[in-house]
Write a structure and sequence with these properties.
The protein is an alpha/beta fold. The chain has six helices and five strands; from the N terminus they run αββαααβαβαβ. A five-stranded mixed β-sheet has the order 2-1-3-4-5, with helices on both faces.
């Protein structure tokens, strides 16, 4: 079995992290990495202490909210957001890091990643969000897709 590249290695970990997701619509995972070392991970799901969507039902489904719109109308937090939050909670500096995401970041996550000092985004599956792409391009950060779809 050939040894995986660093990109393949960290993306496989992001996919493993996504398996912890409690979202009924889409399981996502994120891994923040610097100098080939994992700093933090995150998956999408409700904040700690709240009932999972398996128990309450999907708020977005209940309200007929289309994928890719009104991100704020959801009980869950995105994987990238959770990875940044976990790093902050544990005092881990992520400035200059790379994030490996199972899915291309939405505009909310893109803005958070930019302000957190993330300098590289690697994702597996596309997520159509033109504003996210526009803001990242303006900041000089062009995400790379590896595997999955483009």
């Amino acid at each position: 079995m050939p040894r995986p590249s660093w990109d393949e290695y960290f993306m496989s970990i992001a996919r493993q992290v996504a398996e912890r997701s409690t979202c009924l619509r889409r399981s996502t995972g994120a891994v923040l990495v610097k100098d080939k070392r994992i700093l933090s991970t995150g998956y999408n799901g409700v904040p700690s202490g709240l009932q999972h969507c398996e128990a309450t039902g999907c708020l977005r489904e209940q309200r007929g909210i289309a994928s890719g719109s009104h991100h704020e109308l959801c009980r869950g937090i995105h994987a990238e957001q959770n990875a940044v939050i976990q790093a902050a909670r544990h005092g881990i500096a992520i400035d200059g890091s790379t994030v490996y995401c199972t899915h291309q970041p939405c505009v909310l996550c893109a803005k958070i990643l930019l302000n957190a000092g993330v300098v590289s985004i690697v994702y597996r599956e596309a997520y159509p969000d033109p504003l996210s792409e526009e803001l990242l391009a303006e900041a000089g950060l062009v995400p790379r897709c590896i595997g999955g779809d483009n």
